[in-house]
Design a protein that fits this description.
four-stranded mixed β-sheet; ribose 1,5-bisphosphate phosphokinase activity; P-loop_NTPase; two-stranded parallel sheet; 47% helix; PhnN; 2 domains; Guanylate Kinase phosphate binding domain; 6 helices; globular; alpha/beta; single chain
Length: 154
Amino acid sequence: MRRVITRSAEAVGEAAQAVSVEEFEHMRDRGAFALSWQANGLRYGIPIEIDQWLLEGHDVLINGSRAHLQKAQMRYPNLLAVLLTVNQDVLRQRLLARNRETLVEIEERLERNTRFAGDLLASNPQVFALDNSADLQHTVATLIGLMDKRQACA
């Protein structure tokens, strides 16, 4: 599912729906989002259509927020929370290549990433850590295996 972000449509790195802050707030006020939050100076929303897709029995993958995971778990008790982890050097290189943040912002983000990931895994045993340091195909195969294993246990 594509999330809605108050980021320029020209920004690279994610197939999200870009909207203005005003449009985002209007959508939120109309009830267009199942989940919404603010982070990194931006607003993010998960469209309400997720609820219908889940009712129809579909698996839905979203890019959420570590800081707002508890809110998502309360709304979706059967949620499979996966924390993508990345080697710090690999993450630094990816952020530099993306060219959306300054060097200072990247270093601050790396520090936050380390702190948040450790805290989240320590406080929430239902979260699965998935290393995304290797190539995308490996990460996707591991994620699909995790989802298949979870469904087999259900």
